Amino acid sequence: MAFALNLYPVTYIARYNPETQKWDEEWLESDKVTYDELMAMSEADRKAVLDKRNQMGIPTVTYTSQYAYGCFEGMKGFPTKDGGVAIFRPEENGKRFNNSMKGLYCPAFPVEQFVNASVEFVKRNAALGYVPKYNPDWEKTDYADAESIYMRPFMNSEGAIGVGCSHQPYVVICATTVSAYFKKGLDGAVITDRIRATPHGTGYIKCASNYVISALAKKEAEDAGYVECVYLDAVHHKYFQEGSSCNLFFVLKDKTIVTPELGDTILPGITRKSVIALAREKGYKVEERPISVKEVQKKAVECFVTGTAAGISPISSITDLKGKKTSFCEGFGPVAKELQHELKGRQYGLLDDPNNWNTIVIPGNK
């Protein structure tokens, strides 16, 4: 199953109560159709079930629907080799979600409540069979096409029509099973002349409105035959920022790993943070700093992107605004491959988890 919307039956919804200054929680169970029952249905019947699951009873006319005023998270749960299920670093997603809501000047969702709700969410859907089963064959490709639970916590405002900030937002958690993110048959990345984020804007939070530009730029890249687009900075137009929904990494000739430094125009990715930690554990020198197109063209031998959806994905080339193509390794280079093996191995329970990044939802058999 590729990156597609096949919603699970149980949804978590919380709404902020200004009187108590707490979040009132509820669990919406659209149906009791198990995963096996869903797969046995005709295509038309299956579509009817999935369409019904996408009706969550929250307002339609809102600051969110009218102005893309909202924020969200992408996080994953993984079937582990021992038969269990774990969520990867949910407290980090909770912190970032909390920060995004503060950035939007609306009540922030507590991190502990975020983690607890995420764990319970997976448990309830797992009881109906909506958790992919571990497949040993995934190990042969370091989990490049392995399935996982893609969880989407998001904030939606109360009903509203004028431009304003939310005072009684909703927080929703839904999920779908996914595998590979990038489309097959496309290759390399291209620099876009669009600007993703400007200084003093919202680029540092996972704000819904940021992704409109991403959707447009990525479509333009795909239409031109590229798998991804990459952005330059808004001020000098020469330093790399990030991809449409992922952070960028370059490996230089001396094996130094460089990724653009965080600021108010770059999203602090959870996978980015994890890859930096893993690389340093492996003895690599990692630099978080500005890196220009010219430096990459002269010194880079590998390029890869990171993200919850993308995992670690190699980029074989980058074409600049003048059409100059800089080629890197075909497929995974040696550094990216080592990091991919370590990251995915820990997420799927093939390797030990010394940093305790996995929150166990369902214990394994070993």
Report helical residue fraction: 25-40%
Distance between the termini: 28 Å
SSE string, helix = H, strand = E?
EEHHHEEHHEEEHEEEEHEHEEEEHE
Q: What value does the average pLDDT take?
A: 96
Query: Mind summarizing the main beta sheet?
Result: 7 strands, antiparallel
Structural class, from helix and strand content? alpha+beta
Brief overview:
With about 375 residues, the protein is of the alpha+beta class. It is about 25% helix and about 25% strand.
Give a verbal description of the structure.
- The chain has 366 residues and is α+β, with helices and mostly antiparallel strands.
- The chain is 27% helix and 25% strand.
- The chain has helices spanning 35-40, 43-53, 63-67, 90-103, 111-126, 210-223, 270-281, 293-299, 334-347; strands spanning 10-17, 22-29, 75-79, 85-88, 148-156, 170-178, 189-191, 228-232, 240-243, 247-252, 257-259, 286-288, 300-307, 311-314, 317-319, 325-327, 358-362.
- It has a 7-stranded antiparallel β-sheet with strand order 2-1-6-5-3-4-17. Strands 9-8-7-15-16 form a 5-stranded mixed β-sheet, sandwiched between helices.
- Helix 4 crosses helix 5 (111-126).
Keywords for this structure?
366 residues, alpha+beta, five-stranded mixed beta sheet, 9 helices, 17 strands
How are the elements arranged and paired?
Elements (H helix, E strand, L loop, with lengths): L9 E8 L4 E8 L5 H6 L2 H11 L9 H5 L7 E5 L5 E4 L1 H14 L7 H16 L21 E9 L13 E9 L10 E3 L18 H14 L4 E5 L7 E4 L3 E6 L4 E3 L10 H12 L4 E3 L4 H7 E8 L3 E4 L2 E3 L5 E3 L6 H14 L10 E5 L4
Parallel strand pairs: 7-8, 7-15, 11-12
Antiparallel strand pairs: 1-2, 1-6, 3-4, 3-5, 4-17, 5-6, 8-9, 10-11, 10-13, 13-14, 15-16
